[in-house]
Amino acid sequence: MHTETPIKVRYGETDMMGVVYHANYLLYFEDARLDFLEALDFSYAERIEQAGYMSPILAVDVRYNSPLRYGEQGFVRTSVCESKPMKTVYHQQVYRAGEGDAVRPLVDAHVTVCVVERESFKPVNIKRAFPALYQAYAEVLEGLDA
Which one of 80, 103, 118, 140 has the largest count of C-beta atoms within 10 Å of its C-beta? Predict the structure, then answer.
């Protein structure tokens, strides 16, 4: 399973060359992960934050192949490629609107997140704290080569 989250590049998201500043892709990825959780019927705000947890990023591996530019539209394709009790790895790819599997992604990333207690920042076992989410990840897992 994957979701596709639209992107409309705003002027303030670009650099002097008129291309999306590299760090802004991380913001697009965050929005897309929230959309992915919503598609699993697992609202981040309602199910994770209200329960006293947060989900920080542990690692990001990004390959920038080609830029999006000011005024262009694109989308982030998000899937889960690894799910373990202490971490989840999302595969996130950016495409220009109207393009997709026929072309190489503009940006290709693996983003690793975990779940921690809000107050202590102590990592928690997702399988124990959120068994329904852990099961949903297992059902939609696409593998690391996805």
Answer: 80
Instruction: Return the number of other C-beta atoms located less than 10 Å from residue 44's C-beta.
Output: 18
Name residue 73's amino acid.
Q
61 is catalytic: no
**DSSP letter string over 29-87?**
HHHHHHHHHHHTT--IIIIIITTTEE--EEEEEEEE-S--BTT-EEEEEEEEEEEETTE
| Cα 12 to Cα 71: distance, rounded to the nearest angstrom | 11
pTM above 0.85, yes or no: yes
pLDDT tens digits along 102-115: 689 999 999 999 99
One of 15, 31, 41, 101 is an active-site residue; which one?
A: 15
Residues of the chain with pLDDT under 70: 100-102, 143-146
> How do strand 73-84 and strand 3-8 relate by DSSP bridges?
antiparallel
Q: Per this entry, what is the length of the chain?
A: 146
